[in-house]
Design brief:
The structure holds two protein chains of two kinds. By secondary structure, chain A is an alpha/beta fold. Chain A has 16 helices and eleven strands. Chain A has a domain of about 250 residues: Amidase signature (AS) domain (Amidase signature (AS) enzymes, Alpha-Beta Complex), CATH 3.90.1300.10. The radius of gyration of chain A is 22 Å and the shape is globular. Chain B is α+β, with helices and mostly antiparallel strands. The chains are: A alpha/beta, B alpha+beta.
Chain lengths: ~500, ~500
Amino acid sequence: MQLTNLTATEVVAGISARKFNAEEVAKAFLDRTAKLKNLNIYVHLDDEVVLNQARDVDRRLAAGEAVGPLAGLPVAIKDLLCVQGEPTTCGSKMLANFRPPYNATVIEKLKAAGAVLYGKANMDEFAMGSSTENSCYGPTLNPWDPARIPGGSSGGSAAAVAAMTAPVSLGSDTGGSIRQPAALCGVVGLKPTYGRVSRYGLIAFASSLDQIGPFTWNVPDMALMMEAISGGDPKDATSLPDAVPAYSQEIEKRPERLRIGVVKEFFGEGLDNEVAVAVHNAIEVYRKLGAEIKEVSLPHSKYGIAAYYIVAPAEASSNLARYDGTLFGHRAKDFSPADEAEKDLPALVRMMMATRAEGFGAEVKRRIMLGTYALSAGYADQYYNKALKVRRLIRNDFETAFKDVDFLIGPTTPTPAFKLGEKAANPLAMYLSDIYTITTNLAGIPGLSMPCGLSSEGLPIGMQLVGPAMSETALLQAARLFERETDWHTKRPNI
Amino acid sequence: MSTSANPPYTMIVGLEVHVQLLTESKMFSWTGTEFGLAPNTLCDPVNLGMPGTLPVMNGKAFNMALKTAIACGCTIPRYTKWDRKNYFYPDLPKKYQISQYDLPFSLGGSLPIPADKEGNGGKTIRLTRIHLEEDTGKMVHTSGQESEVDLNRAGTPLMEIVSEPDIRSAADARLCLEELRLTLRYLGVSDCEMQEGSLRCDANVNLHIDTPAGQVATPIVEIKNLNSFRSVERALLYEADRQYKKWKEDGLTISDAPKETRGWSDPDGITKLQREKETAADYRYFPEPDLLPVVVDEEWVERLRAEIGELPRERRHRFESTFGLSPYDANVLVEQGKDVADYFDAVVALTDQYKMASNWVQQEVLRTANADGISVADFPVKPAMLANLIARVGRGELNNQQGREVLGKLIETGAGADIDQIIEAGGFKMVSDEGPIREAIQAALASNPKAMEDLKTGKKKPDAVKGFLRGQVMKATGGKANPALVGQLMDSILAELEGGA
């Protein structure tokens, strides 16, 4: 048996049934990870730390102690989730030396569930990017075609699962950073309702949009992970206190209602034909399953990218202000005046300036500048406040649509994975790869991407299902319905 | 100090007061807020702004602030939110302060200025708003190149109270602050120790000057570094004088010059211009996405209103109307703090000698407590005992002087003192027998011929001479004679002497 081919559900069941132990599982994934080092998936991975956790699970199982529902399951972690005492760098030189003295709430929950915290997965610096090319550690390569990007910003987490170096992983999604790489790597990715999963210990990019979610091979694995990480948290005021449903049991039921809205605006200009065909085929699958298919419109979605690239950078400019060399992270060694103009500045100011100049990459700097500008006196009404109005209109669009339908369907991305470097020089083209995912973050509603085809070049294609706030159960049920009729979720890259 | 006794201007003052709330933990995290601990020992990942951490509102702090606003008669909007105020400074670990910008939790309201000793004044200052925020850390600039930062204070709940420019004198500014401090202490929301920084005040001041061409206003100055109520008063007097002289020199008015910030130097007794930033600060305020807005409903407000109890201004009024005290006496009892007024209330609950109770509490009790550096709540003679003593004086069992001496013994003895025993042992029985008093009076008259001469010739006022003679009688009787009887008998003896002559 090839342990690394197993789904999370199979891994957990196998360990529990003593078919194999947690250490064997950990070893199998570590061996495979070592062989696939060229993909640059992990930025920190300490084999001994992983093995010790696995051995501890085995010891507890042998002693008859209670182990959690994820006992022995390796989970790769996006490198912006704080793990106590372990490097947590956000793919940035700025935090290259940072080891948080606390765990993110999701990490605490995973530990409580018996999961084995696997390596820290590569990402675009501070989650800003759609290709993982903006990492200070260099890009992660797409397991389906190493000449291509895996998507981003959670490219490492998506590739970790797709390359079978970990059975599941956690990422974060601010504008599509889970769903876009999931689509491009042929795995399932869920951005939950804003507040469903605690953000405590998630190093913030844009606080009102960030949400943690899993990458898995299929819907049952997704349900398993969501059960473990969801729930209200006294440490996160924006988390929702609602009870966590037994997703794993619920998913096998048919959704109560199956009215699916096809979003007109998501099939317009810029959409690759193969992607359009694959999604239309998926719609037909649903039609055959008895779904009522309707065309719906989200008229303000065309302003989504514009609004997002004001709101997110505005929040980021504030969230990232703390990285100035005073308390933690990188501090410039040389901050002597760079030019005549800097001579009159206090040493402290020069230190902060030099630190930020050295520590941040180009995309992060670009967004800090964008956000600072959008919030500046005299411009805030024109940019930030207007973007908030657009955000409300987008939310209203979804609310209106959900009066008539239960889910929305569309492509996750306009194209399959693009080539390394293809869009690196053109930020706007890069931003457009999130065009179908970004509006759900602005509305705070859940979106799930799942495989629904392969392109003629053998690249995965993903479709997105979107539901109203807190509709995760129904969303997973609808996804599961599709999965039972198709085999796209069983496709593996040939590596 | 103002050089002119009657300056041709009106001082216009508005206050911005920062008050640290008396909570156990910080505004948005769990460490404590004690003053005076070793630097950077009250820190946690949240108030250090460490990556990934999130703020959570301290509900107790919010309630304390809300209580203050209710007590000041403010309007409590139903919806309030948090905002980020962004600026780079090392005293702010996150490089933004969580504050309230356009939708503070409290609008309007007022603060009373109580009447002064002469019974003058007694007006009301309008408040603009009150908002809640987190305090910053403290920069310590050492003599060398280095600056140090102590983040113990960072994140302490801080309430900012902004007044309208309704204050017209330095004395009123001080009175207004004293009343605010008293009110906040009554509410139990802050200890308001200016020396420890739990109450900090900036004052905005300018002058309205009457000229033949009409009224002109001088440029507004914000005074910082005011570290005591006395310095607030001194700084305003200094600044008014400075602004007037400057205006006479350069004639600049509010429309000619921007607002400037000056720091008060207490040892020098002057304000000094603080380094101005080259450009106006742009704080790039925006709603704090990590915290939820707060919806304050009627029920919430009413629940806190019920907890407030009697406020200082209400208590003064009750002391005047129920016990017949003068506004001055009522104010002294109230302004000394809640424990003093509570003590007085406990005494007058047991005796109807209100005026005497007021005098004794203001004099004997307060003087002794202050001299011993103890709070009136810890005063060794409890209110019931004082009421007992005052009642005896009221019934004429003891004269005033004896009463004071007995009180002295009671204080000396401390808790558990037996008043009957003290009176018995000290022989503090007032002598009201006519015989011995008559003898003492006659002896006093006989041994003071000069006084008798003065009475006859009218060289001195009769009352003054009689007072002197009564004093001699009291002295001769060891202070035990009934003073009323002494006066009465002396008058009749003198009348007899006069008639006989």
